[in-house]
Amino acid sequence: MSKYLSEKFNNLEPYVPGEQPQDRRYVKLNTNESPFPPSPKVIEATSVSEISIQNLYSDPTAKRLVESIAKYYTNYVKERGVDFEFTKDNVIVSNGSDEVLAFIFNAYTDKDKGMACPEIGYGFYPVFCSSLNVPFVSVKINEDFSLDLAKFKGIRENICIANPNAQTGLYITVSDIKTLLSENKERLIIIDEAYCDFGGESAAVLIKDYPNLIVVSTLSKSRQLAGARIGFALASKEIIQDLNTLKYSFNPYNLNRLSIIAGSVAMEDVEYFNKTREVIIKNREYLKGALTALGFKVTNSKSNFILASTPKMGGKELYLALKERGVLVRFLSDELLKDWVRITIGSMEQLNTLINTIKEVLGE
Amino acid sequence: MSKYLSEKFNNLEPYVPGEQPQDRRYVKLNTNESPFPPSPKVIEATSVSEISIQNLYSDPTAKRLVESIAKYYTNYVKERGVDFEFTKDNVIVSNGSDEVLAFIFNAYTDKDKGMACPEIGYGFYPVFCSSLNVPFVSVKINEDFSLDLAKFKGIRENICIANPNAQTGLYITVSDIKTLLSENKERLIIIDEAYCDFGGESAAVLIKDYPNLIVVSTLSKSRQLAGARIGFALASKEIIQDLNTLKYSFNPYNLNRLSIIAGSVAMEDVEYFNKTREVIIKNREYLKGALTALGFKVTNSKSNFILASTPKMGGKELYLALKERGVLVRFLSDELLKDWVRITIGSMEQLNTLINTIKEVLGE
Q1: Burial B276-304 (b: 16+ CB within 10 A, else e)
Q2: Nearest chain A Cα distance for residue B363, angstroms
Q3: Helix axes of B257-268 and A257-268: crossing angle, nearest 10 degrees
Q4: pTM surpassing 0.90?
C-alpha cells in the first residue's frame, strides 16, 4: 500500500478469484467454466478480417450485441406468454457481469443505504459494498442453505440475490421473485442469473411489469465465453439509462470489438446453447448420483456446479487431497461452507476422473 | 433517470466519446485511431486455437501482457542510460486506459482532495472527478495552449497531465516533469502518455527515482489496438499494489484472453511499432505543411493528431462542412477551442482527401 492511497480504502479486502494455476495441468473444475468450446459460429465469425480492424475503436453502444440479447429475451418471454419487446433501451452490456454489478452497486447505494444480500451468495457483493464504503446487509439463510424471503421484510436496502445461488446452486422460483417485487416496489431487486440457464427460469419475464427489477447475466457459463468477458443487465428504460450514465462516466468503450461479435453470434446460436446446456444438466445429475452413492450430501443445484460434502473429511481437506492428485475443485472460505467443496460440471471424462480420484482419496 | 438512482449522481455529466457514425462511410479522422492494421504478428497470434478456448477464463493477472510491457520499458529506459528493471510489480493492465485512470482517480482522491489538471486535457478527467464526487481543480494554461507548470505550485491536489496534451498535442519535456516531481514529493503526478509514442519521450525513465509518479498509456494509438481495449500504468510497487487492490475489488478478470495475447505480441513487435509511428510522424509534418500553406494555424503537435484553425471560419462550421462532404474531424466543445478542429493523422490518401475537401470548403 502506498502512502498516497485514500483513507476510504483502508479496510478494503479485495475479492479472491478462483485459482488459475499455471504450474501444472489440472482437471479444472473450480471456476464454473464450460467444458465446451464456443459455438463453431463464434469461431467462424472471429475472422481474420475482424481481427485486422482492431486498429479501430469498438462501438461504444455495442449495438450488435445489445440487439442480439434483446432479441433472445424477446423470444424467451414471448414463448412464456409475456408480450414484451426488449429493445436496446432495456439492455446494457459490460466487461463481464462484474462490471455491470459494480455499476449497479454504485448507482443504487450510498453511505446511508447499502445493499442487502443473502449471507451466502456471490462473494463479490460484500466486496463491492466495501469498495464503495456502503453498508453490506447480510441476511441469514436457512440451515439447508435455502432462502427465507420473509427475512428481507423491513429492510430498507435494495436487494441483490444470485439465482441460482453462486455457492450452493439453489434456486428460487420466478413466482417467489414476483412476490418479492410486489411487496417492495420502493426498493430495487437485482437478480443475478449467471447460472440460470442450467434449469432455472429467467426473471426476464417480469421486466415488463416490474420497474424495480434488474436481471443480470453473463455469457461466461452457458455460452462458453468466460475468456471474452461479457456480461449484461436487463431492466426498464430508466434503469438502463442510469447504468449508461455510469458507464459513460467510467469506461465508454467497455467492450472490445471481438467480444461484441463473439457475444452477438453466441446469443443467436440458440441451437448450440441448448445442446450444450442439456449435456451439462445431464452430467450434473450423473455427478449427483455418483457422489450420493459415495455417501456425499449434494445440494439440489440448478446450476453448472454442485456443492458436495462427505462425512469423512472437511471441505478444505478434500480440496487439498484432490488438488494434490491433479483435480481442482473450489473450497469456499465461508465458515458455513467449511464442510463443502464446489465442483464445476465438466465433461463426462472430467467427472469420471474426479469420481475415481475421490474414491482414491476416500480409500474406497 | 430512475427514481432509484443515488443522489450522489444528480449532477453527473458523462463523457461524450467521439462520433462513431454508422450511417455512411467517412474518411474518419476524429478519434485518433491508427490508419494501419495491427501487426501481422498480432493477427497471426489471434489463432483459431486461441479463439476456441474462450470458454476458459482469462488470466486475471494478465501475466503474459504485463511481462511484455515490463520488458519493453526495461529496454526503453536502459537505452536511455537508466538502470532499472521493470517487473510485474511495476505494471498494471486495464480494459483501455480509461479503466486504469478510473482506478487512479478513485484511489487517490476523496471529497477533500480532488485532482488538479490543466484546463485543457483529456475530457474524461473532470468526468472521473464528477462521478467520484471529488473536486476537479482546473489549472489555467497559457494563451498559446502551453502549460505553465509554476501554476501547479501551492495546490494540494495530486496532478494529472496528458502528455502530449490530448486536445492540443503539445508536449512537456521529461526534464520539466522531473522538476514537477522533485518539487511535489508529497503529491502524486500522473502522466497520461496515450500519445507519447509519436515524438515524445516517456516519463518511464523517472519511475526508478520517483515513487510519486504514475505513467499511464494505451495500445490504442501507436500499437493499432483501439478495438482491443488495452491500457496500462507503470509505477512503484506500492502504487501498483494500490491499483491492484482496486482492480480486484471491481473487476479481477478485466482483460479478455484475445486482448492479452494481442497486446503482448504488439508490445514485442517493436519493428512494426517503429515503422508505423515513423509514417505517422512523417504524415503529420506533411499535414502541418499543407494546412499552413492554406493559411491555417496548427499546433506543434507531438501526437498522432493536430489541432488546426483557419481565420475563414469557426471550428464547428469547418467540422460540419467537412462532415457533409464525408470527412470526419473532431470539434471539441471547450470554449477555448471554438476556433479549432482536431484532426487525426491518417494515411497519405486520407490526408490528401482531407486537404482537397478543405480547399473545396474554403473555395480555393
Answers
A1: bbebbbebbeebbebbeeeebebbbbbbb
A2: 32
A3: 150
A4: yes
